[in-house]
Amino acid sequence: MAPSRYDSIYKSSLLAGKVVLVTGGGTGIGRCIAHELASLSCTVVIAARRLSPLLKTQEEIGAAGYEGRCDVLHPLDIRDHEQCKKAIQDVVRKWGRLDGLVNNAGGQFPSPAEKISPKGWRSVVDLNLTGTFFMAQAAYEGYMKENGGSIVNVIVDMWNGWYWVAHSAAARAGVYNLTRTLAQEWTPHSGVRINCVAPGAIIGAGQSNYPPSVQKKVIESFSYQNPSGRLGTESEVSSAIVFLLTPGASYINGACINVDGGQSIRQGPIFDTVFSPDSKLPIYHGFGSPSPDDDLGMGPGFRELFGRMAAIKPPGDAEKGKSNL
């Protein structure tokens, strides 16, 4: 049984004729972006190191019957400079253009800073910082320098440091500065725009990458420790990324959109004020109500939390029990 069709907030013809490459496009936020782009009549090319998630997402998109389509590029290790160059060449050779690049691939593992080995440090920095640069450089040199385009780099909420993830926090901060630098170097000569999106704590497949002890803390306490009182959804991140790929964002360059519920401005409890788990902010989830066939890779605890988030009604909503999906 195929998952629900993606119901984007944007008009279905928005990206007709465009080609966008999404790294890490087989799972989590990347999968969600791929669905939304295809629903907007875009040709989306998804790439990653593992083939099976890419094929699964491609199959989902094909079954959904969108106006757009999904192509798979494999393998792609963004830490390999030659693979990055070849990936761009392959996309341009097959589709004749490259209008957008979403640098979504990345990852990390939790560890106290003093316990991070040299190998672990280099692995995470290479993946999140060096790989992002290699892909951006390949897209620029391989097509966008002469034709323009849009690059969106996905980072994280690392503005006040990132406890137990020093390697990734340092790398993502580097990507933010890299984005601002490239916007100054490249845009005046090419018309390429380069921006960032910084997700906060997002509920979805990405949480399954962390140990059960970390997942438990997220569910029980961290899930509401921001001014919005809840976690974000993959769709809420995807909407911001897609916007930056559209003509509506034509004068946004070298910027970062924080999709974090206000987490980046959080200062913790002030006097007797604490954030409440009783959120008043409804969620947006492009797939509608999750079914067993579209569970976003969540474990039982996160599915229960997602159900509570999906039941949030805006203040004053007279229709009690009405879903916000």
UniProtKB/TrEMBL annotation:
InterPro entries: KR_dom, NAD(P)-bd_dom_sf, Peroxisomal_t2-enoyl-CoA_red, SDR_fam. The keyword DNA repair does not apply. The keyword NADP applies. Keywords: Fatty acid biosynthesis, Fatty acid metabolism, Lipid biosynthesis, Lipid metabolism, NADP, Oxidoreductase, Peroxisome, Phosphoprotein. It is an enzyme of class 1 (oxidoreductase). Participates in chain elongation of fatty acids. Catalyzes the reduction of trans-2-enoyl-CoAs of varying chain lengths from 6:1 to 16:1, having maximum activity with 10:1 CoA. Has no 2,4-dienoyl-CoA reductase activity. This is Peroxisomal trans-2-enoyl-CoA reductase.
